[in-house]
Amino acid sequence: MSGCNGHWSISLQNNQTEWLCVDVAGFKIINVYKPPRSRFTPTAIPTFPHPSLYVGDFNCQHVNWGHSNTSPDGESLDSRATSNNLGLLYNPKETAIFFSHRWNVGSNSDLAFASFGQDSRLPDRRVLGKFLRSQHRPSLITPRSSMFLPTAIR
Q1: What is the band of 154 on the pLDDT scale with cuts at 50, 70, 90?
Q2: 8-145 sits in which CATH class?
């Protein structure tokens, strides 16, 4: 399935980027997972209209979200976000959202991008404390504008 015309859509392919879209009163929430060894292509995830929020484990490195270098996948993701008017929800002062026990290093491969219209500001994202038995930290995303709230609760 492609698109997010109903309440949800999902894309599952062998070793490719996977995504799940949930539509809540016109607000699209897209959860993304890109396996570490797969390539991120600009068409890996469909583009959804505003308001939309893309969150997940993108496994892409870019200096814009705290990595020391930019990988080809990171460059592709950053270019796609820019060309689709998606803002990165990232604060370099916050704790890394992923901590590898194996390599004893933190990184930010779990990302969030939000669409923004002419009169809306990007939501806040705050990295929370450690999650039991996980190397990933949860994050809390809070809308700043009524444009990000589903019409049913405005």
Answers
A1: very low
A2: alpha beta
Please state, in angstroms and rounded to a whole number, the distance separating the CA atoms of residues 60 and 88. Answer: 13
H or E element: which one contains 87? strand 86-88
The structural domains of the chain, with segments of one domain joined by +, span 8-145
Q: Which residue has the tokens 């496994």?
A: 59
The two tokens of residue 92 are 């370099």
Q: At 69, is the secondary structure helix, strand, or coil?
A: coil
Of 55, 50, 46, nearest to 3 (Cα)?
Answer: 46
Q: What is this structure's pTM? A: 0.80
The alpha carbon of residue 101 and the mean position of all alpha carbons in its chain are separated, in whole angstroms, by 23
- The b/e string for 125-145 (b: 16+ C-beta within 10 A; e otherwise) is bebeeeeeeeeebebebebee
